[in-house]
């Protein structure tokens, strides 16, 4: 071999290593992802279709050449678990929204037809006049079936009813920070609406108060504005109690907490509703050495805070009550709420942690803490004891809030 040939080959190997794509091994990255799920994800056993989905997506790996391609495929794979807390990144502009933060509609398939069940109040969808009962004909110029298949990357026929509903709501939220076009059937006629990116309304909240409040007759109404990870929320909640002054009851509105938060914010707020140290939820932690089922059931406590709430209170929850919002809802229930009113919550599973995936340069968030109500039932099994439309009925009325006022009225007589 002459010197020229040696230099050429050396240059080839250097540029191949520098490029990185040729060195990427999708099968190895796939093994790493699933190994982390088995080791850390406390809800893996709940997904009955795990092995089937795993095999289906493993067969797609032969077409994957880049790390970005692997991440995109894996994101679709994880949506099959229908757990909004199970996410993979990094995220880019071509990715779908993270549900439910990026959603302003909640829909379900009824008799094979996509029907809107709830609309987030003050969202782009609400402002455009979408209402429960509207039928969805197309999403971003795709049929509903095609839109669902794009989210899940498998044929519609292979999906369970739960998976179809989950994918439908991700599709309605659209791509991150991108406007959406939705065709609706209203009274037999097709109407096309263009909606702003669903994240716009959520992001606008960051510039406003973390807590909103006002008086509804003799009752104090307090609404949380999706800032349950911000310590300022604790400060503003205490100020709201003080500013409302003497009331005969409280309505606590957790219907706009889709992005979750942390216990450092939740526990001081819950503390205003107990006069002694009290359990508000329980948990088991899964580790590489111990499956959650074998772990010790531990308790999370709220400790008394001033001012103390001594009057009746009720809680509003719904499709956009997520993560720590769900934890606070079951916590308020354990601490003596007169009623939990609204729609089933978002079911963000567990307390989460983020794991680095070295072979793909990605990360995955998994629920490693299995969460329970104080009574020992799973958090995700909890539903409001008074089921109503979460945010609005077909006429845009807040029936959950109307119910809350009636319940409080009955409890102070």
Characterization of this structure:
The chain folds into three domains: 26-89, no CATH class; 105-198, PDZ domain (Pdz3 Domain); 205-345 and 382-411, 2-enoyl-CoA Hydratase, Chain A, domain 1 (Alpha-Beta Complex), CATH 3.90.226.10. Helices cover 32% and strands 23% of the residues. The protein has twelve helices and 17 strands. The N and C termini lie far apart (99 Å).
Primary descriptors:
413 residues; alpha+beta; Pdz3 Domain; 3 domains; six-stranded mixed beta sheet; five-stranded antiparallel beta sheet; 12 helices; 32% helix; 23% strand; disordered N terminus
Tell how many strands the DSSP assignment holds: 17
- Count of discrete domains: 3
Name the strands of the widest sheet in spatial order.
8-9-10-13-14-17
* General form: globular
Largest sheet: 6 strands, mixed
Q: CATH superfamily assignment of the largest domain?
A: 2-enoyl-CoA Hydratase, Chain A, domain 1
Helical element count?
A: 12
Give the termini distance in whole angstroms.
99 Å
Oligomer: single chain
SS strand fraction: 15-25%
Give the name of the CATH architecture of the largest domain: Alpha-Beta Complex
* Percent range of helical residues: 25-40%
Domain Tail specific protease: 219-386
Pfam family, one: Peptidase_S41
Keywords: Hydrolase, Protease
InterPro entries: ClpP/crotonase-like_dom_sf, PDZ_sf, Tail-specific_protease
